[in-house]
Design a protein that fits this description.
The protein is α+β, with helices and mostly antiparallel strands. The chain is 17% helix and 41% strand.
Length: 103
């Protein structure tokens, strides 16, 4: 998917996919969604998310709600928060060790 946001081109085909998160709903469930975290060659981060009509990626279409996909630009703090929320410890340790503190 490609999207231009604030005059910046985001392209899932040319960026590096760093992490993938999928909801625990099966693909036939309207609540199902999947998110891919990407880093561009220039070091910018973005999230590509897609999901069904009852997911966070749903959109109104007339009187109906449909599944959709979108690209969301992210800064490093957003990325760390996203990774922490999804318990992606390995990616956090590798990509953002300066954000972590040993207990």
């Amino acid at each position: 998917m490609k999207a231009i946001i604030d005059r910046t081109l985001y392209n899932t085909e040319t960026a590096e996919c760093v992490a993938v998160y999928s909801s625990h709903h099966n693909r036939g469930d309207f609540r199902h969604f999947e998110e891919h975290l990407y880093r561009t060659r220039r070091g910018n981060w973005f999230l590509h998310g897609e999901g069904g009509p009852a997911s966070t990626y749903s959109e109104r279409c007339g009187n109906n709600t449909v599944g959709s996909e979108k690209i969301i630009p992210m800064d490093e703090d957003d990325v760390v928060e996203w990774l922490e929320l999804r318990q992606m410890v390995g990616v956090l340790e590798t990509r953002f060790p300066n954000y972590l503190t040993e207990a």
